[in-house]
Amino acid sequence: MKEKIYFLITCLILSYSTQAQLYGGIEIGSKGIKMTVLDVENLKRNTYDVKEFWTENVGIAAGIGIDGALLKEDIDKAGTVVANNYKRMLTEYRIEDKNIFIVASSGVGLANNTNDLVVKIKEVTNKKIEIISSSLEAKLLLRGCIPPKNYLNSVIVDIGGGNAKGGYAKEINGSSVFFPISCDLGTVTLTELINKKCKQKTIFEFSENLFDYLPTMRESFKKMYTSRPESQEKSNVYISGGAAWAFYTLTTGIKAEENFTQVQYDDILAIRTIAENNYQRFVTAAESNVEMQKVLKTYQQKSLIAAFNLLETSLEVIPNVQNKKIFFAKQGQIAWLVSYVFDNAKGVKQIN
């Protein structure tokens, strides 16, 4: 009888230990550093639960818009944040070292001195980070941000801190083939670019200079879409990234419950106007709204104006955008990182 009890206990312990395993992902992005802890039940079936997700608002891409390089102080700051959270994953969450992945986003990858960042992270964690290309990041985004049933009639557009990227899938010979699109304009890089044009550094002057820059922005996004003409023909547009999150949160005042929420193009136009002309409205509302407070702690007014102009322009240049369905992808902030962790945990070779 005792042997049977011991056998059952052993089976339960083994069953529990094989049911789930923790994985950690750290993404060094242009606007901040994101940490994700995944409770993975089955790698083959991609079944998991996001056990924990948090962000530290450490901007690292400010220098890219100035002279194309990451600033040394920003690299050092990123190294400290990454080291602290890497140790937290090892000790507090007891994640195995081999199950922790550290990457830098494609926006950070635009810098001409990314090797300095790679060396710093290697120094503080003994791990070599990978700088993700915009095409791979967009491919992972598509997999994580669009429902499989809508893969072939949708395009994903992600406005990040360092760049904008996205893409769509097309069926060729019975397989879905991904086609990336990208534009070297993001919230941080655009904010720094416009700031360089300002002498008095006021909001009014910033908005004026940004308005003058709009024709260039439109051309940049037009080129992004016309490089892959089929991207303009999709009936669904999924938006993700910090700009989309800020738009949704400040418009609704709540945290998105559904993974995909349909939004209206006119609301995107309206939120941009408020950011430029009535920013105090956000400040007042945020006093009693925790979710809105998170946005305003992440974005100062100039960055918010830049973010919403990018979001609006990226949609405005799509032909017949008023007749398309636009969805906010709630999981956009972690979707590509989750896909990356899964592929690498399985030993899948990444192809840029």
TrEMBL record:
Location of the Ppx/GppA phosphatase N-terminal domain: 57-196
Transmembrane segments: none
Signal peptide: none
GO biological process, alphabetically ordered: regulation of transcription by RNA polymerase II
Pfam families: Ppx-GppA (PF02541)
Gene3D superfamilies reported for this sequence: 3.30.420.40, Exopolyphosphatase. Domain 2
InterPro entries assigned: ATPase_NBD (IPR043129), GppA/Ppx_hydrolase (IPR050273), Ppx_GppA_N (IPR003695)
Protein name in UniProt: Exopolyphosphatase
